[in-house]
């Protein structure tokens, strides 16, 4: 109770003494806004609300609840703008160490009060302003790109270029810039009273947009196959078919041989059936040999056709085209005759 009384009693001390000796001391407040003569533009109900908020603000101030007191004082000023409330707002901001805001409120108080302020009060506030200006500094922000957002302590303060230095409270601050493309840069600085600190932020250049007239690459068509290469492909296809046929008849030959063996193992051999089975087996075996031989010959021929097919300008006497090639196929044998 004694401490609260001391706070309220200290309201009679000049603010110049406040800043020089103790931030907990108080300057004399103005009369409540509700005590002023009603303005034709402000109703009695509005003035009553402003007075009640002012009274709550004084009580909270006396209890040391400066943030809550500031809310009530500012709301009272919004409801019924009376310049005398700016004095109380400024004092409360000093207690919250919002020195820049306190200076702005005092300056507005002097402007709006004008000639109605007693000389001693004006001198008191001007002395307080002089002390407050020692508790703020200025930051000059230089950005290498225009039209990017600039922030101080995560609060947007404008867009580059910012031509004037920004006044802020003393202390540590984070200065940042961010472009629409996501490029950003930031610096943390310590600002002392009266300092003017220059901060240079460098953002990466925006990526260049792809040109609309960029040439379109088209696939280069492969050179057409020569007649010899086409012949080689056809020969390989025929050889593959012959080899597959040879594989099938080979399997049939093995099956027929197994049946012949079983027939010969019986006690009473049917000679006529056995002879027929032998003929069938021999025929299948011969067919298998022929098909495999033809398939192999065609595979070799196709390979030769592909390898020997060279551009005319690269051919020499030693690489003349294949001439007079003949393939001979016999039972279980393959022969290739020709001149190269």
Would you mind describing this structure in some detail?
The protein is α+β, with helices and mostly antiparallel strands and 340 residues long. It folds into 3 domains: 2-117, Serine Threonine Protein Phosphatase 5, Tetratricopeptide repeat (Alpha Horseshoe), CATH 1.25.40; 135-201, Immunoglobulin-like (Sandwich), CATH 2.60.40.10; 227-339, no CATH class. The protein is 49% helix and 17% strand. The chain contains 9 helices and 9 strands. Residues 5-40 and 313-320 have low confidence and may be disordered.
Short summary:
The chain contains nine helices and nine strands. The protein is of the alpha+beta class.
Alpha carbon gap, first and last residue: 124 Å
Strand and helix order: HHHHHHHEEEEEEEHHEE
Number of strands: 9
With helices defined by DSSP (H or I, 4 residues minimum), what is the helix count? Answer: 9
Which outline best applies?
A: rod-shaped
Residue share in β-strands? 15-25%
Could you give the order of strands across the largest sheet? Answer: 3-2-5-6
């Amino acid at each position: 109770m004694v401490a609260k009384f001391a706070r309220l009693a200290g309201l009679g001390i000049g603010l110049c003494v406040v800043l020089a000796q103790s931030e907990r001391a108080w300057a004399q407040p103005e009369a409540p806004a509700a005590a002023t003569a009603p303005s034709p533009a402000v109703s009695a109900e509005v003035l009553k609300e402003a007075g009640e908020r002012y009274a709550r603000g004084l009580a909270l101030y006396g209890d040391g609840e400066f943030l809550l007191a500031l809310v009530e004082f500012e709301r009272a000023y919004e409801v019924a703008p009376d310049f005398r409330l700016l004095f109380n707002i400024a004092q409360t901001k000093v207690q919250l160490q919002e020195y820049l805001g306190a200076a702005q409120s005092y300056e507005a108080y002097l402007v709006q009060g004008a000639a109605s302020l007693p000389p001693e009060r004006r001198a008191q506030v001007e002395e307080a302003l002089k002390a407050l200006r020692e508790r703020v500094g200025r930051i000059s922000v230089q950005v290498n790109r225009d039209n990017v957002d600039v922030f101080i302590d995560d609060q947007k303060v404008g867009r580059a270029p910012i031509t004037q230095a920004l006044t802020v409270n003393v202390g540590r601050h984070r200065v940042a810039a961010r472009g629409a493309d996501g490029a950003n840069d930031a610096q943390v600085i310590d600002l002392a009273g009266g300092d003017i600190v220059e901060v240079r932020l460098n953002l990466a250049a925006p990526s260049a947009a792809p040109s609309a007239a960029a040439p379109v690459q088209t696939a280069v068509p492969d050179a057409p196959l020569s007649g010899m290469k086409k012949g080689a492909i056809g020969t390989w296809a025929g050889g593959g078919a012959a080899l597959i046929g040879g594989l099938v008849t080979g399997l049939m030959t093995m099956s027929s041989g197994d049946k012949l063996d079983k027939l010969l193992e019986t006690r009473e051999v049917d000679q006529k059936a056995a002879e027929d089975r032998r003929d069938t087996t021999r025929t299948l075996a011969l067919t298998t040999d022929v098909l495999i031989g033809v398939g192999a010959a065609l595979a070799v021929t196709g390979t030769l056709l592909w390898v020997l097919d060279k551009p005319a300008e690269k051919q020499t006497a030693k690489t003349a085209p294949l001439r007079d090639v003949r393939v001979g196929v016999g039972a279980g044998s393959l022969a290739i005759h020709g001149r190269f």
